[in-house]
Amino acid sequence: MKPVELSTVGDWLRAEIEKQPYWFQQIELAPGLVTPGWSKPKVEKLPYFGLPDDMNNMRVLDIGCSEGFFSFEAERRGAKEVIAIDSSPDSINRFNLCRTALNSKVNAYLATVYDLNTRVFGTFDLVMFFGVLYHLRHPLLALQKIYDVLSGALLFQSAHFEDASLDAIAMAKFYPFGIASGSADKQLHDCSVFWIPNATCVRDMLHHVGFCNIEMLSKKAGIVFRAEAPQRSSGTPPDQSKVPGA
Predict the structure, then answer these.
(1) In the chain, where the domains are located
(2) What's the pTM?
């Protein structure tokens, strides 16, 4: 990817970025042009999330892509195709602004993890599932949907809690009315947070659904796990003759 040069297009991008009332991720779109998000994924998350240095020829899915930092990073590392999904229309709009600035070929779709199936999406060598599980009413169903489209490896990240007194007991805290979120100076109430698991709970959920070779990668930026499909194969696009409407 080669970002566009800042000129008239750059001025337009700045104006469009400023029109957005909210940004989550800081993404460098060009020298001197960074989206005004409160999350800094390049330094706060990327070193801990387990992305392979070489993603050549991978078919990648980014679930809950937000403005697309990890989608664009996968493309930069050589992924042959990256599909991004998010349930927020505003996120998709911001994603497409970044896509334009980066001259990216990543495609983003308005969809949820529950929409995943091989007939529409095909299968993937790598699925990135970062910062989504605790927003879901049905986390096990979501993991099952991912399992169904995974032909390679899953990278998983979630907020978590730990209590030494629980030892190896799988637990998750339930928040029926959400939690405080955002940066320290810009707190907001996130009513979409429902479950915050401990590490044992994450491991056991992955095992229950059927993932194998489950390993914890980090606790430095939430809880990060890597898991694999039991029978690995190359990710493949959907069969166009079988997609809806064909």
Answers:
(1) 39-228
(2) 0.91
